[in-house]
Design a protein that fits this description.
It contains 15 helices and 18 strands. By secondary structure, it is an alpha/beta fold. The chain has a six-stranded mixed β-sheet. Strands 15-8-7-17 form a four-stranded mixed β-sheet. Strands 11-13-9-14 form a four-stranded antiparallel β-sheet, with helices on one face. It binds zinc ion (ZN).
């Protein structure tokens, strides 16, 4: 008995030592980067962003038409505002409105880089509810207001401002740089980014890395870290919606059978909701922990550094909130249910749609298997909505030149921020490039709080003028950092 007790004590001591050693070895990944020259942006940049916001380049839905005058007006504005970009770079237009610029590098043996942004925007909703007009580009001295200031015209204008300035300074890039600007990202990017990517593929262009929107410098959004956290998306979740339908004889509601099409579908939805797909730490979230964990307070560091012991605790914490849950599992969201026409008639059909956002490592096939296994009812017809399936984007490695260049540039321009890779929950145009490179990084140089996040696709979208200027410096410095 005494021996057993001693053995247990020793086991606990060894475990505590292991925990502490692993925690001490859990070293910061942030490094130190000093920016030699502080670049000061000035001049017309802010006015140019205001003007860009003034064109209502709205994407409504895949099958509705667009205001072509707004798109043409915007392009003309770009062509005139950035004369050096438009004279010295090769320019191609895809499907009337998407732009690809090629800035030829000195060394054509190096793989080119693609900087991306999109300039279509989602509808503004009720214009009257905005504090400032959604297409006013109003500058109140601190903020520029309007649809597209965060998503994603600010990025496009920042890239152009940076490249125009570099051209003015006589800069010649070592490797070729493509600038890819889509006009239909908010409705799939099929005509814009996808067409551009397949054209590059046809020309056999091998890309070193792609940088597109997706994540940002976040304030107060990562629990237990006071500093801002700049996040770089290294994958994005997939998307599949599954339709469930059932037909059964109906009848009069005065003499109902025990089950009807309606109750069968209601139960199927409930089963899916109660039997969620198992959570797991995917590659990008593991990377996130490696980069962010060492910056946390000691007690949290112990947990993050010792995932061999605390994995289930970690998953429990993550799945406790909707946003954490979305990072660690393929989510299940019933979005549509339809049945019935009259209060005293038992419906003969019922249907529901459930939307799943798929974690890297899983796919639409495994989701559909899960749906079948969970519902286990042959009366329910299960079919995915084929037109809208996106598999999760391949996970991009973090030990590449591309990741390092983006990482280093963020550390230089936002030295106050911790930088970390992560999983992106929304879709971006960059996924269309996954056939021409493994290295796709999702970061736009904008600074956001969770309140700002509600303005993206919501009311009163706006950007701080000084944040926008910092974004220009980000692209300027990134292009310089690409030199060997
Ligand atoms: Zn966007």
């Amino acid at each position: 008995m005494k021996k057993l007790f001693q053995f247990l004590i020793w086991l606990i001591v060894i475990m505590i030592v292991a925990l502490i050693v692993r925690t001490l070895l859990f070293k910061s990944q942030q490094g130190s980067y000093i920016l030699q020259e502080q670049i000061i942006s000035e001049g017309e940049s802010v006015k140019n962003l205001s003007e860009a916001i003034g064109f209502p380049t709205v994407s409504y839905s895949i099958d509705s038409s667009i205001d072509t005058a707004a798109f043409e007006g915007y392009l003309n504005f770009i062509f005139h505002k950035y004369p050096l970009v438009n004279e010295r770079l090769e320019r191609e237009i895809f499907n009337h409105f998407s732009l690809l610029y090629k800035w030829r590098g000195r060394d054509t043996s190096l793989n080119p880089v693609v900087l991306m942004a999109h300039y279509d925007v989602v509808p503004a909703g009720d214009n009257q509810e905005w504090e400032r007009g959604p297409f006013s580009g109003y500058n109140d001295g601190t903020y520029i207001w309007g649809r597209g200031t965060l998503d994603d015209k600010a990025s496009m204008i920042s890239i152009l401002e940076a490249v125009e300035r570099l051209l003015r300074e006589g800069f010649v890039p070592e490797r070729t740089i493509y600038l890819s600007f889509g006009h239909d990202k908010e409705i799939s990017g099929e005509r814009g980014a996808r067409t551009i990517a397949s054209s590059l593929k046809k020309r056999d262009v091998k890309v070193e890395f792609v940088l597109d929107e997706g994540m940002a410098v976040t304030y107060g959004m990562v629990p237990m870290i006071k500093k801002p956290v700049a996040l770089i998306g290294t994958s994005e979740k997939g998307y599949v919606s599954v339709r469930l339908s059932c037909s059964l004889p109906g009848g009069h509601s005065s003499t109902p059978e025990r089950e009807s099409a309606l109750t069968v579908i209601a139960r199927a939805v409930t089963r899916l909701n109660e039997n969620q797909i198992k959570p797991q730490l995917s590659g990008p979230v593991e990377d996130f922990i490696r980069y962010v964990g060492p910056e946390m307070p000691f007690y949290a560091k112990v947990i993050f550094a010792n995932r061999w012991l605390f994995k289930s605790l970690l998953l429990k914490v993550y799945t406790g909130s909707a946003s954490g849950n979305a990072l660690v599992r393929t989510t299940t969201a019933p979005t549509i249910i339809k049945s019935g026409i009259k209060d005293n008639v038992i419906p003969v059909t019922a249907e529901a749609v459930v939307n799943f956002r798929i974690l890297p490592g899983e796919n639409s096939g495994s989701v559909i298997e899960h749906v079948k296994k969970t519902i286990k009812d042959s009366r329910v017809v299960i079919e995915p909505l084929r037109d809208f399936i996106n598999e999760p984007a391949p996970v991009s490695p973090v030990d590449t030149k591309g990741f390092m260049a983006v990482f280093r540039t963020i550390r230089q321009i936002y030295p106050e921020a911790v930088v970390a890779p992560t999983l992106t929950l929304s879709a971006s145009d960059s996924r269309h490039f996954s056939e021409i490179t493994r290295n796709i990084y999702r970061f736009a140089p904008i600074m956001v709080t969770s309140e700002d996040m509600t303005r993206i696709h919501g009311l009163n979208e706006r950007i701080k003028a000084e944040d926008f200027l910092r974004g220009i410096n980000f692209y300027y410095q990134l292009i310089k950092n690409l030199q060997q």
